[in-house]
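Input chain follows. Return structure tokens only.
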Amino acid sequence: MTAADPERLLTDALRAQAARTPVAEPTEPVDLGTTTARAEHDLPPRVWWVLALALLLGLAAGSLVGFLTLLR
């Protein structure tokens, strides 16, 4: 191994760390199908308001720039 091979050094370090990390046994069975589907659709209303506000501000800024471009 040469000193100019950082990818190999990183790969070896990550493998060594993964070999030392213990794997925890799950205490309860987890149903990933229902929790994942529920997590995708249960965004709080505040998130939707922030996204809508960002969209409206982006449209307003784009419209303003377009209007100013037409004036010149």
